[in-house]
Amino acid sequence: MRIAFLGLGNMGGPMAANLIRAGHTVSGYDLGAAQLQALAHAGGTAATSIASAVKDADVVITMLPAGQHVREAVTGPDGVLAHVSPGALLIDCSTIDVATARAVAVAVEARGCQFVDAPVSGGVGGASAGTLTFMVGGADGAVGKAHPILERMGKTIVHCGGPGTGQAAKICNNMILGISMIAVSEAFNLADGLGLDRQKLFDVASKSSGQCWSLTSYCPVPGPVPTSPANRDYAPGFTAAMMLKDLNLAQAAATGAETATPLGAQAAAIYEAFVAAGGSATDFSGIIRHLGARK
Ligand code: NAD
User: Fold this and answer.
1) Ligand 1: which residue has its CA nearest to atom 8?
2) CA of 30 to the centre of ligand 1 (A)
3) Model-level pTM?
4) Which of 108, 149, 2 lies closest to 28, judged by CA?
């Protein structure tokens, strides 16, 4: 397949490299010279514009920061739809708002192309190892066509429903993650205050009803889970700024869907305060330090 890959950052770079390793021809575009160089080094073609990246592409993948970047890159005057061949499949792997995903899907289909939203979970480690989870929204035909490509970058692919449902699944999942990381952090801080050894709390809660991913795979205190960012002074990983972005997307979606999410709102406010206090580039599990002040 001839694949155009737009957005070759922390996630897009290794994802594109996996497609090249699988034998696809990849032409990539990014605003950054270093990202383009890395693509060329991995065996891809560094394009000088979106137009030249997508002109012969069967499939266009976007992995961009946020909704406005995806809208501009796809529907803007010099964007994908102005240059791609009709019939091409567009796969957006960025985490963006549901409304933008649905609006882009409509614009893509009006141009005679296909669209799926396919945001990911698994972080930079999963992107490099090709073990991402894809949450996919779109029509059956488009999702079927995307499947063999997504398989080269991930190991779990869930078709969630029509356009936008991949993004819906992603923000619901990350709302759980943000809330649960705060819950686990508060519990460790309380354990400290009560003189309970952290490892003992881990030993109990990891085998009890407090068990969750934030505890057993990404523990916010050093020691119990050697691979968690707590063991390297909270170097990311997944930054607090990204968590705040996803929690804000969840809040915007909850408002639009008239759904009460009081803990989601509280988690967004707590991460906003952490980011405002300078935590933006810290791993999101560093929230434990922000919460840690003893009363
Ligand atoms: P990043 O900032 O490292 O990469 C984004 C890239 O897009 C940058 O290299 C930037 O130069 C490029 N870019 C911006 N505008 C562009 C344009 N108009 N044309 C071409 N390139 C453009 O971000 P990332 O960590 O790779 O994240 C990308 C997306 O994946 C985000 O939506 C993020 O929420 C999501 N995500 C990230 C992680 C993670 O752990 N990093 C995990 C899951 C999902």
Assistant:
1) 9
2) 10
3) 0.93
4) 2
